[in-house]
């Protein structure tokens, strides 16, 4: 049913269709920014990566195999939640425009990772095993089960009529913004940029740069939705919700650390479980701070190549813009705060 009350709140049940007068113009501007940030998988050149893969040690090849196996399913899980939960309950046509665009971007990411697997794993059996990672790789299955718990908690709710339902929806949204896109994927990005810092796998790094830009925008939008709900319904943001979010992020850090142990084994030069723990704790604290909650770890980022990522990618982006992007981007983008 269409809502016709212009002072309705963002999570009020209904299906508002009227864009004028516009209740949430910032969401519409995010949609416009996303359109200007268009890229295609065909623009990513993976040819040089094939020779680089042959140079890697057995342990490094194991890391790459696990990493691309996670990529094979990660964005599909996010896309499903967009369709089944977020689009259904965020009652704003401006926001739904953005979510529609985000769904397209998740499809591009899935295509990129499909192309990546086809390039990196020429053996059909290896590719099949990577796509079945949720079933046969415990460290990836643990992360997927973490995602599914939050999806299942909201998926069957048709209307956010009660305060309890709205809290469940908020926890779903925060989980996907702060934990999955904001922690699981940022952990994966760190492995990619570790290889790039050593002059390896530039094709993977290029595609990841563009995925990284998209994911940063996805998080920013989701956090803006949380900010809007906080203004409209401040009573939802009590000590109980803060504790639930904090516990959620702690659980996400531990799941990602299990993945790190799988990838890193006894440790690689410049990359090991201890440094990844420190990095993940740093990122988790940043997500909590952005949500207006107290940080819990107090860790600093141990990866200098991640500190440089924001400035480096912004520079490379504008150098590449005429040939690498179909639509020019205007304005400025900051990334360093997200690490």
UniProtKB/TrEMBL annotation:
It is an enzyme of class 1 (oxidoreductase). GO terms for molecular function: ribonucleoside-diphosphate reductase activity, thioredoxin disulfide as acceptor. Pfam families: Ribonuc_red_sm. It comes from the Bacteria. Gene3D superfamilies: Ribonucleotide Reductase, subunit A. It catalyses: a 2'-deoxyribonucleoside 5'-diphosphate + [thioredoxin]-disulfide + H2O = a ribonucleoside 5'-diphosphate + [thioredoxin]-dithiol. The keyword Oxidoreductase applies. Its cofactor is Fe cation. The chain crosses the membrane at residues 169-194. InterPro entries: Ferritin-like_SF (IPR009078), RNR-like (IPR012348), RNR_small (IPR033909), RNR_small_fam (IPR000358). The keyword Membrane applies. Binds 2 iron ions per subunit. Its EC number is 1.17.4.1. Keywords: Deoxyribonucleotide synthesis, Iron, Membrane, Metal-binding, Oxidoreductase, Transmembrane, Transmembrane helix. Provides the precursors necessary for DNA synthesis. Catalyzes the biosynthesis of deoxyribonucleotides from the corresponding ribonucleotides. Tetramer of two alpha and two beta subunits. Belongs to the ribonucleoside diphosphate reductase small chain family. This is Ribonucleoside-diphosphate reductase subunit beta.
């Amino acid at each position: 049913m269409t809502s016709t009350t212009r002072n309705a709140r963002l999570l009020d049940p209904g299906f508002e269709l009227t864009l004028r007068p516009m209740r949430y113009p910032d969401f519409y501007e995010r949609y416009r920014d996303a359109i200007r940030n268009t890229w295609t998988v065909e623009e990513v050149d993976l040819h040089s990566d094939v020779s680089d893969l042959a140079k890697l040690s057995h342990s490094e090849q194991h890391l790459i195999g696990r990493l691309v196996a996670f990529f094979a399913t990660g964005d599909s899980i996010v896309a499903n939640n967009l369709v089944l939960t977020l689009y259904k309950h965020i009652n704003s046509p401006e926001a739904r425009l953005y979510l529609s665009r985000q769904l397209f971007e998740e499809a591009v990411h899935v295509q990129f990772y499909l192309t990546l697997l086809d390039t990196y794993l020429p053996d059909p059996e290896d590719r099949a095993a990577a796509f079945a990672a949720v079933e046969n790789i415990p460290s990836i299955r643990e992360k997927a089960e973490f995602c599914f718990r939050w999806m299942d908690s909201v998926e069957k709710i048709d209307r956010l009529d009660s305060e309890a339902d709205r809290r469940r929806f908020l926890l779903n949204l925060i989980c996907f913004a702060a934990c999955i896109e904001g922690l699981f994927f940022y952990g994966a990005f760190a492995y990619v940029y570790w290889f790039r810092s050593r002059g390896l796998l530039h094709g993977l790094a290029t595609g990841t740069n563009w995925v990284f830009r998209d994911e940063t925008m996805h998080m920013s939008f989701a956090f803006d939705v949380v900010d809007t709900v906080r203004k409209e319904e401040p009573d939802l943001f009590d000590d109980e919700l803060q504790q639930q979010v904090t516990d959620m992020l702690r659980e996400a850090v531990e799941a990602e650390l299990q993945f790190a142990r799988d990838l890193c084994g006894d440790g690689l030069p410049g990359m090991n479980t201890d440094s990844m723990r420190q990095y993940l704790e740093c990122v988790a604290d940043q997500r909590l701070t952005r949500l207006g909650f107290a940080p819990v770890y107090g860790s600093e980022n141990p990866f200098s190549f991640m500190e440089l990522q924001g400035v480096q990618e912004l520079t490379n982006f504008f150098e590449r813009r005429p040939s690498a992007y179909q639509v020019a981007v205007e304005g400025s983008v900051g990334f360093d705060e997200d690490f």
